[in-house]
Records
---
Amino acid sequence: MSNIFDEIEHTDSSSKIIFKDKKPLDHRFLPDKLVHREEQIRQIAKYWVDALNEVTPSNVTLYGKTGTGKTAASKFAREQLIDAANNKNVFVKVEYIRCTDYTTEYQVIAQLCQKLGRDVPNRGWTKGEIVNTFRDIFKTNAFGKKLILIVILDEIDILLDKDGDGILYTLTRTDNVSVLSISNYLDFKNLIKSRVTSSLNDKEIVFPPYGADQLSDILTERALLAFNDDVLEDDVIPLCSAMAAKEEGDARYALDLLKNAGELAFDEDSVKVTSEHVKMAKDRIEHNKVTEIIQTLPLQQQRLLEAILNLTKNGEEISSGKLYDEYKELSKKDAVTYRRIFDFINELELLGIISTNTISRGRGKGRTNIIKLQCDEDLLETTLFSI
Ligand SMILES: Nc1ncnc2c1ncn2[C@@H]1O[C@H](COP(=O)(O)OP(=O)(O)O)[C@@H](O)[C@H]1O
Ligand SMILES: [Mg+2]
């Protein structure tokens, strides 16, 4: 029997027409140059260069909104330093940890031990045991050379929020270890206690949002690698760039738009990617985002959304009191308290799925919260129904 993948690869000529190689449009792709981030990379390198002279570099913090190139720049600097260290024959390691994958101090330290060749369990040891094992790495060094370790803690806000600042305390108080933290929030230091701020003593590097022209340069570079010649109509990259510039200069969103536009053109067997495809791509991305958010919500919040949906369909104005009644009806025995519902409402509002508006009922009658759905009703219904 013929192989279906072979068949599709060889008969479906449009796939060859649109994309040359889809990998460069993937989030994880690391281009070999990062335009408009030369300055930030140079700053990181200026601190890290100490490692090449066997001096532990300063701790560094990168700040900036989503999609401003923080992860890419840190990985880029990492590759460059590893290259330089190999050439100079110094013993430097740079380990990248994404704190969404390792959410406690124990997990991060265990992961670092494993990456550095120590066989430690993922759970079960006391914190003292794991930390001592980690610190021993820097004492007993078979090579007789001094190991310098740089730890990149990406998305550090999540870890600090869940687990406190113990990880920073431990790392910054281990000889030969330097930390590069990456945060999406300028006020992330509020999550750190002063005992840690003093030992962190970090240098800060800010990643500003990209403007439309900068995004356009980034997309142009990627498009050369990803699309065949003359496939993109002239207005495609400017449109993706303008749309992403509005979304806080997010390069990831810009790349997503371009990739989805290409895929939609491909699905239609079109030989060109047009601005229409970009507009469709925007809708598709929004659709997927809402669906994903709703699917990953805790059950009680999904119920609350269902209650909001029911009231919306009845054309009713939704006050928090009325919403609670409807929610209780749906939840029966395991309903949470009225107080908790306020937290849920806040969270759903932060996610952009609903909005709230406080109105005054007139003198002496107090004020009420009016809740409105901010996403598509049908989309919400099908998503909730599918769960
Ligand atoms: N200056 C740039 N040049 C090329 N690609 C970039 C640049 N900045 C960001 N990107 C790409 O955009 C996407 C998002 O960047 P990322 O580094 O993940 O942002 P952040 O970590 O700040 O959220 C990645 O795919 C990255 O490769
Ligand atoms: Mg990132």
---
Amino acid sequence: MDYKQLSGREFPRFSAIKTFFRLPHVDVDADYEVGIFGIPYDGAVSYRPGARFAPSAIREASSLGRGFHWERGLSFLDKLKVADIGDSPTVPIDQAQTYERVEKFVGHLLGNDKRFIAVGGDHSLTLPILRAANKKYGKLRLIHFDAHLDTYPAAWGCEFHHGAFVRHAVSENLIDPKASLQIGIRGPLAGGEDLDFVKDHGIQVTTVDDLRIGGLEAFVKSLPNFEGDTPTYLSFDIDCLDPSCAPGTGTPVVGGLTTYETQRILRSFNIGNLVGADVVEVSPPFDSSDITSLAAMDTMFELLCLMASGSD
Ligand SMILES: [Mn+2]
């Protein structure tokens, strides 16, 4: 199987069937190395819905996705067999069944020793992904881009809303909180006690102030080293970006990162054992000129090149 991208110089980018990065759509059991799949589910959002439409909108925006990374000097297409493996099964009106299906789907690919990028969907979906990844790899290091801590308590008596996956991942022993890092976090919070969880468990939280006051390059240099074989999972909530860079999202928070800042941070990483990643919380009905889907697609490009740079 040839995992080449459909060339924009042969077939115009507005033509052809839409897949992630114009890559082949293959069966989950095919011989790819990194599978990109959608999870069209948004039943756990607390404010604006619409993330269920993100996989198809990001496939559309992927028409502009290219392979060669100027700064890293490599093309992920030359280093890895990457494919669109379709969407994970979901049940739009039942979260428990959705969790079961997502965990089974991710467990299946991990059983075949694949890596993956999941395209949400709301952020509650990271939990069943981490459950599957933990079964294969044990405790994971989490690198988490977000405006929100996602350690918040139950809402309306429901535990598994889209702002709680980190709390569950820690309490279920899926991740090592002391090895984990959050980037892009900012207030306001509902109350000061919302900071207790990260303090008690020793998660390293970095805020937009941490980045802006000392400057981007000093911030990037201050980040931990991710080399070595610690299994690492990266979760990218698009709302880490400022609403001017990502208006189409469920719970926007002003005063966020720019797209360039997240690119620069991702380019600075060398992750020794990145087992999987997700990009979540894009809500196309609230987007404008596809700006949010484009930011998601570009983040996926950075992630694919990050995976490729560690696969010589
Ligand atoms: Mn989140």
